[in-house]
Design a protein that fits this description.
It is a single chain. The chain is an alpha+beta fold. The protein folds into five domains: about 15-160, Beta-Lactamase; about 175-275, Beta-Lactamase; about 280-355; about 360-530, 2-Layer Sandwich (Heat Shock Protein 90), CATH 3.30.565; about 535-660, 3-Layer(aba) Sandwich (Rossmann fold). The protein is about 40% helix and about 25% strand. The protein is built from 23 helices and 24 strands. A hairpin with a 3-residue loop joins strand 18 (about 505-510) and strand 19 (about 515-525). The relative contact order is 0.05.
């Protein structure tokens, strides 16, 4: 927090100062005693005065004859005794060139620079007045310091250098530096603001309301509270919030440091601070935290689900046994039939949940789109509020599609959850499928037009709808209209990745206040897709050497790689992995290194193996850390770098692309 004085200071323009350079700003006697320009001297090798020019003689206030023969140390030391030791050390020095900064005492110290050059048995010197440092150049010292053309040139040079350095800083700073007024308009702001907000700096300097227009509507109240709190406490504040690009709607996470400028009376004059784009870091941190908790929760949940299924199986078996023992007219028969049916339905539901959890993405097969929709709808019925009506309207007959069913279910569930969020109280949710011989035109969507005939999955809600300015950015990564702690902005982006990988498209139609409809477009299977995919795969099964520490993470990775069709040999020490590579007994296509520490033995193994084993491809998977924490030079040593939060389907695809390029 900066407390400032409100006194006004009147300073003449620099051009006026230069125009008056030959006019003394103080009396001649005062100037002679204080300011020195170009004081020249010739000294003997031990510092004795041999010659001095008129400027130096006048400044010292002595006659030339009185100076000759005296030691410079004694001449200047008589005026300022604290200089004696410094001058003696400079004169006694053997370096060909030397300089010394000198300052007088008192409330307003004067500053000088002494430069000496040795040549033979002579020392040539120059003594000049210089401006003090910026920290010492207080308001009261300006009149005493800015005398003569040289002082004014020094000040002008400093200003030019400072402006140049500031300009370089502004252009290279990876964020935005600002000086903001109390009304939130900007006195100064760096040019990068236009990249983040779509608004040029000139508008920011005139219109204070622009700041609150770009702050994400879900974060505006929190930002106001943080700013108000920093003013009350008179302390700088650092916090994270989101802004939205005025033209594209792109959302950016900002780390802001804001320092309020407040007078002694508590009046807010403005703020100084900077913005840093922390979008990637924020999303990565949240995903890592969420992934860790979800992994723990999934283990517990699956254990409970297995136990629950076993209990329901026992109830179903007993009810079936009692039902056979009871006669047709027994009073309990109807109730036993009801218990048996419900226990079977419960067991089937638990089985679907377990299958959904255990499903491994990356394997495509033929599926009926209608059946996939019914399965998800059955699960959805158990979680939606009673105030939401769920409808399923599918195309008559079957709609065969060639998809990764695990990924497709994830896409449907994400779209369903988004629809439920848009209907917080009541509404209607409809899941459907249609067959199209021709594709309708859509304004907002992404992907490629699927081969005809095409099947469409539709998810329609009667919720709040989507604002028109957001429609073109819905499928961008990290785009979300939810509060900072509610959504990651990756659900629709994952849907986009799914349709692009399956040669399809996704589109959206919405009217604000009336709801939205998302459609996933896929080509209807002609049952040649599997043959084409098999034909595109290499005939031989590739072998990978997996090098990484023992544990659940490595076990899961190895299991996935084997499921994806690779022959995997494990080595849980760098020594064993090196021996396997050097032996040549295994024709490995790739070395898969899994590590979280760039200093680990496994990381060293990667560096040693690069380029030493023919066409061996090196794959680095980073776990537990963000790849931005590693040096770029280290990451470039690997043929492929895989992030810790990369989906398995994406890992499989990138591995295939890596080996296909070989």
């Amino acid at each position: 927090m900066k407390t400032v004085k409100r006194d006004r200071i009147s300073i003449a323009p620099m051009s006026d100062l230069f125009g008056q350079a030959d006019k003394p700003l103080m009396s001649p006697a005062t100037v002679a005693a204080a300011w020195l320009e170009g004081g020249m001297m010739v000294l003997s090798k031990d510092g004795g005065m041999l010659q001095a020019n008129e400027a130096l003689v006048a400044w010292l206030g002595l006659e030339t004859t009185a100076l000759v023969g005296q030691n410079l140390r004694d001449v200047l030391g008589a005026r300022h005794p604290e200089w004696r030791t410094l001058l003696q050390e400079l004169i006694d020095g053997q370096a060909p060139f030397g300089s010394l900064q000198l300052a007088t005492g008192g409330e307003t110290p004067l500053h000088y620079r002494l430069d000496l050059a040795r040549h033979g048995d002579r020392i040539f010197g120059r003594l000049d007045s210089v401006l003090p440092s910026a920290a010492e150049l207080a308001e009261g010292a300006w009149d005493e310091s800015l005398h003569g053309r040289r002082a004014q040139h020094q000040m002008f040079t400093r200003l030019i250098q400072a402006e140049s350095r500031l300009d370089v800083l502004m252009r290279r700073w990876p964020g935005v530096i600002f000086s903001q007024r109390a009304d939130f308009s900007f006195h100064f702001i760096s040019a990068q603001i236009e990249d983040l907000t779509g608004i040029p700096p000139e508008q920011w300097q005139r219109q204070g309301q622009l700041f609150w227009q770009v702050v994400h509507e879900a974060d505006a109240d929190e930002v106001r509270n943080r700013v108000h709190r920093s003013v009350l406490q008179r302390q700088p504040a650092s916090f994270t919030y989101r802004i939205r690009h005025s033209r594209t709607g792109r959302v950016t996470y900002l780390l802001e440091h804001r320092d309020p400028v407040v007078t002694a009376n508590g009046i807010v004059l403005g703020y100084e601070g900077f913005w840093i784009d922390v979008t990637r870091q924020t999303i990565a941190e949240r995903r890592l935290s969420s992934a860790a908790w979800k992994e723990t929760l999934s283990v517990v949940t699956m254990g409970l689900a297995h136990d629950f299924r076993n209990l329901m199986a026992g109830i179903g078996a007993l009810s079936e046994q009692f039902l056979h023992q009871a006669g047709e007219d027994h009073s309990f028969r109807e109730n036993m039939q009801l218990i048996m049916n419900n226990s079977r339905q419960a067991s089937q539901l638990v089985h679907r949940i377990i299958s959904l959890h255990n499903g491994q993405p990356g394997e495509r097969n033929y599926h009926d789109l209608n059946e996939l929709i019914r399965e998800v709808a059955e699960l959805t019925r158990k979680i939606i509020p009673r105030t939401i009506q769920l409808n399923v309207v599918v195309h008559e007959g079957t709609l065969p599609v060639y998809v990764d069913a695990v990924e497709f279910r994830q896409v449907i569930i994400n779209l369903v959850l988004n629809a439920l969020d848009a209907m917080p109280t009541r509404g209607s949710l409809t899941l459907g499928s249609t067959l199209h011989g021709e594709l309708p035109a859509w304004e907002h969507g992404c992907g490629t037009a699927p081969r005809l005939p095409a099947a469409a999955l539709s998810i329609r809600d009667t919720g709040t709808g989507i604002k028109p300015r957001h429609l073109s950015n819905l499928f961008d990564p990290f785009f979300t209209t939810k509060a900072l702690n509610k959504g990651s902005g990756l659900g629709l982006y994952n849907a986009r990745m799914f349709v692009e990988k399956h040669q399809g498209a996704i589109s959206v139609e919405s009217t604000a206040g009336q709801g939205a409809t998302f459609r996933v477009w896929l080509p209807v299977a002609d049952f040649t897709e599997g043959e084409r995919e098999h034909a595109s795969r290499p005939a031989e099964r590739r072998s990978l050497l997996f090098a990484g520490a023992e544990g659940r993470t490595s076990d899961n990775t190895v299991e996935f790689l084997r499921t994806a069709g690779y022959h995997v040999v494990e080595a849980h020490s760098s020594e064993l992995a090196t021996a396997m590579l050097d032996s040549g007994e295994h024709p490995f296509a790739g070395l898969f290194v899994q590590t979280e520490d760039v200093q680990s033995d496994f990381a060293t193994l990667l560096l040693r193996s690069n380029g030493r084993h023919g066409r061996l491809k090196t794959i680095l998977q980073i776990v537990g850390r963000n790849e931005d924490e590693y040096e770029t030079g280290f990451l470039r040593r690997a043929d492929l770098v895989l992030g810790a939060d990369l989906p398995q389907a994406a890992i499989h695809q990138r591995l295939e692309e890596l080996f296909a390029s070989a």
